[in-house]
Structures are given as C-alpha cells and as structure tokens.
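Q: Given only this backbone (86 positions), what sequence would you predict?
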C-alpha cells in the first residue's frame, strides 16, 4: 500500500481490506485493495503513467497467491440509520 499511496496519481480514496475468513472455508484472497478515482479517464491516465505501471508491477512481484486480479467497478453506496422501535 505505501507504494500505491505514493505512485497512483489522481486517486481520491484507498481502502485496504484483510480477509479474516469465509463461511465456505479458506477464502481465495488474502487482501483486497480498492483504489478510487473520480472518473474512468483519471483511472486510465493513472494506469498509463510510470507510477501506475510501477505500482501494478510491484503488486505482481509481491503476490504470493498467483497473479493479482484487477477489476474495474462502479460503486453504489447505501447508508442506513438506526431506527428505534416504540
């Protein structure tokens, strides 16, 4: 994550998640890294930059469970508030 923080220009947010377990047994992933960009254009510019290429190459280098899987997704957020029943 430190390299991604330093090298991924244009990002607006990063979330690093460590997988603790799965009801189905051993989870197929150990870590999930989410990197947010304000637009597809910003993501594409970052991925094509020297810093983006360096960060992606580093992810491949340090991955012990096979080649990292990169997904491009669009987030949809739902926010809930606690309601009190009478």
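A: Predicted residues:
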């Amino acid at each position: 994550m430190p390299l991604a923080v330093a090298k991924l220009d244009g990002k607006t947010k990063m979330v690093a998640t460590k997988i603790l377990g799965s009801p189905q047994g051993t989870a197929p992933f150990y870590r999930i890294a989410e990197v947010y960009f304000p637009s597809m254009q910003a993501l594409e510019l970052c991925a094509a930059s020297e810093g983006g290429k360096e960060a992606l190459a580093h992810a491949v280098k340090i991955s012990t469970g096979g080649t990292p899987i990169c997904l491009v997704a669009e987030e949809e957020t739902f926010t809930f508030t606690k309601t009190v029943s009478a």
